[in-house]
Amino acid sequence: MKVNQFKNCILLLLVAICTLAVENKALAQSDTSSLFGTVTDTSGAAPPNAKAPVRNDETHMGHTTHTNHGG
User: Fold this and answer.
1) Alpha carbons 49 and 68: distance in angstroms, whole number
2) Can you say whether the dihedral through the CA atoms of 43, 44, 49, 55 is positive or negative?
3) What is the per-residue pLDDT across 9-24, written as a single tens digit (0 to 9) for each?
4) Does pTM surpass 0.85?
5) Which residues on adjacent β-strands are paired with residue 63?
């Protein structure tokens, strides 16, 4: 009987550790982000409707948007 209790205790401990590990990862996620900067051409002027690609080096996910400057 004591062996079963020990196994159950170990199993419960492992489940608790896994739950805490997953919970910490989930808390680090965000569904919104912001990126601010200035896009200029070689003369220093802001080009109209310029493409602005960005990429997360860790996840290799990227997105391309256009600047707000209308020219």
Assistant:
1) 6
2) positive
3) 888 888 888 776 665 5
4) no
5) 54
Rounded to whole angstroms, how far apart are CA atoms 8 and 5?
5
Location of structure tokens 């159950």: 8
Q: Is residue 50 a contact partner of residue 32, using CB atoms and an 8 Å limit?
A: no
Q: Within the chain, what is the greatest distance between any pair of CA atoms?
A: 80
Chain mean position to CA 38? 23
Reported residue count of the chain is 71
Q: Which residues of 4-19 are buried (b: 16+ CB within 10 A; e: fewer)?
A: eeeeeeeeeeeeeeee
What's the rounded Cα separation, in Å, for the pair 10 and 12? 5
Token digits for 38? 């200035």
Q: Provide the residue ranges of all domains of the chain, joining segments of one domain with +.
A: 2-66
For residue 19, what pLDDT is reported?
74
